[in-house]
Amino acid sequence: MIILEIVEPIRDPKKIDAMKIYLKGKNIRDYALFVVGINVALRISDLLELTWGDVLKENGKDFKVINIKEGKTEKPRSIKLNKTSQKALGELLDSLDTYYMDDYIFKSREGNNKPITRQQALNILKNAAEAVGVEENVGTHTLRKTWGYHAWKTGFNP
């Protein structure tokens, strides 16, 4: 029997900002994961699979529209990164000594070129949420739910 734990969006913009500040102070990769996660509404499995080649034009500096096939639904999806996501990814890129277009963006320190695991992403989010006093039950799906909640609050209609 699978027990699904209900996770919530982070509703309070001040808590979102606190999470950003906390994560940026700890690890720029984790900060970028959080920022991109709450801005693009991808499932964590699709987010972790992104490479620099998925988001950067051939010149390695400018951002392009992300074209992926979602893992769960197999639906094609095009995503234009907003300025906030571009800035966070740009800061991550600037922090790297070297990178290749086929490198995972949210790269693990384990192995040669592997993304962090879902479990690691969960640990990052839970630790940050606890550190800044987020009351809601946070999980990896919180990123997607946070995007949805704030999109709904501002009247976004895709």
Folded structure, characterized:
The protein is mainly alpha-helical. The protein is built from 7 helices and 2 strands, in the order H-H-H-H-E-E-H-H-H. The protein has a two-stranded antiparallel sheet. Helix 2 crosses helix 7. The relative contact order is 0.23. The mean pLDDT is 93.
Tags for this model:
mainly alpha; two-stranded antiparallel ribbon; 7 helices; 49% helix; 5% strand
Structural class, please?
mainly alpha
Helix content, binned percent: 40-55%
Order of strands, main sheet, comes to: 1-2
Q: What's the main sheet like?
A: 2 strands, antiparallel
Provide the gyration radius in Å: 15 Å
What does the average pLDDT come to?
A: 93
Low-confidence stretches: none
How many beta-strand runs? Answer: 2
Order of helices and strands: HHHHEEHHH
- End-to-end span in angstroms? 36 Å
Proportion of strand residues: 5-15%
Tally of helical runs: 7
Shape, please?
globular
Question: TL;DR of this structure?
Answer:
By secondary structure, the protein is mainly α.
Please give the structural blueprint.
Blueprint: H1 13-26, H2 28-40, H3 44-48, H4 52-55, E1 66-69, E2 76-79, H5 83-95, H6 118-132, H7 141-153
Antiparallel strand pairs: 1-2
Helix pairs in contact: 1-2, 1-6, 2-5, 2-7
